[in-house]
Amino acid sequence: MDIRNKTVVVTGAATGIGRALALAFAQAGARGVAVADLNASGAATVAAEVQAATPGCEVFAHQVDVADAAAVQGLADEATRRFGQVDVFCSNAGIILRKGLDASADEWQRIWEINVMAHIHAARAVLPQMLERGDGYFVNTVSAAGLLSQIGSAPYAVTKHAAIGFAEWLSITYGDRGIKVSCICPQGVQTNMLFGEKGERKGFLQEGSVTAGHVAAVTLEGVADERFLILPHPEVLEYYQRKGQDYDRWLRGMRRLHDKVMQEFGGIVV
User: Fold this and answer.
1) Is 270 among the domain residues?
2) Alpha-carbon distances, residue 237 vs 72, 103, 157 (angstroms)
3) What pLDDT digit, counting tens, does each position of 245-258 carry?
4) Of all helices (H) and strands (E), which one includes residue 59?
5) Which of these is catalytic: 137, 156, 174, 239?
6) Domain holding 155: CATH number?
7) Residue 2 lies in a domain
8) Which of 183, 206, 185, 187 is nearest to 195 (CA)?
C-alpha cells in the first residue's frame, strides 16, 4: 500500500508506539490521521504535535475505550465523517498484566477485552466499508509474545497469541477481497510499558530494546510491502522458526530462560 493520500486511525496513540505511528503515517503523506486514546488530553497533545509537523494532514483527537464496541464504532464513524472513509485502522492499544495463575477472573477479562476484543471491535466497525470498496488495511500491534511467549505473564502471552490468531483468520477470510492485515510483533520497545512511568522497572527485554520511532519506521516498510508479520526485532523470526522446527527443544530453552529471568530480575520481566 502507498500510504500517500490515505486516511489512518491509530488507537493507543497518546504515547509510545501509537504516537510514533501517528507521526510516521502523517509524515509519509497520509491525508488524515485520527489520534485516539483513552487519555483524552494525551491524544489532544499528540494530535497537535502531528498537525504541527504535517500541516497538510487533517488530524483530530478522539477519546476512546477500545474495550467498548460502541466506542470503537463511534471512533470509526467520526473518522469516516471527517475523512470520507477509513483506509487504515491501526489497532494499537494494549496492556500487560504481570501475573500468572494468581490473576483474577476480572483481570483476565480486562486484558482480554483490550488485547483481543479491541481488534475484533475495530474489524466490525470498518470492515463493511472496506469490503464495499474492495480495499482496506488493518495494522494490529501484537507483540513477539504472540509468536513466542511472555516470561512472567500468562495473561499477556495468552491474549497476544489470540490476537495473532484473529489477525490470521481476518487475512484468510478477507484477503482475496482486498483486505490487508499486518501484525507488529516487537520484543522490547522503549516505552513506559517497558521501563515504567518513572523508569523504575528492570527487565531482560530492555537489552536490545528499540525506540517507538524505529517500530513505526519498520511498520511503514511492512505496510508498503503488505507483509503480515512486521518484526522490528528480526531475530524474532529465527526464534519462531526454531519453535516450529522443534517445539520440545524450544520449550526446554524457554524454561532455562524463565529460570534465568527469575534469578536475575526477581520475576520483573518487562
Assistant:
1) no
2) 32, 30, 17
3) 999 999 999 999 99
4) strand 58-63
5) 156
6) 3.40.50.720
7) no
8) 206
The residue with cell 501475573 is 99
Amino acid, res. 138: F
Which three cell numbers mark 12? 493507543
Beta bridge partners of residue 189, listed in sequence order: 210
Residue 90 falls within a domain, yes or no?
Answer: yes
Cell 477519546 found at: 63
239 is annotated as an active-site residue: no
**End-to-end Cα distance, the chain:** 33
Q: Are 98 and 270 a contacting pair, CB within 8 Å?
A: yes
Residue written as cell 513506559? 192
Domain limits for position 11: 7-265
Amino acid identity for residue 121 in this structure: H
pTM exceeds cut of 0.85: yes
* Tally of domains within the chain: 1
Closest by Cα among 82, 224, 243, 265 to 149: 243
C-alpha cell at 80: 469516516
pLDDT tens, position by position, 73-98:
999 999 999 999 999 999 999 998 98
Q: What angle do CA 16, 6, 46 make, to 5 degrees?
A: 30
pLDDT in tens, 208-219: 777 989 999 999
Residue 249 near residue 142, CB atoms below 8 Å: no
Torsion of CA 64, 111, 190, 72, to 10 degrees: -20
Residue 1, domain member (yes or no): no
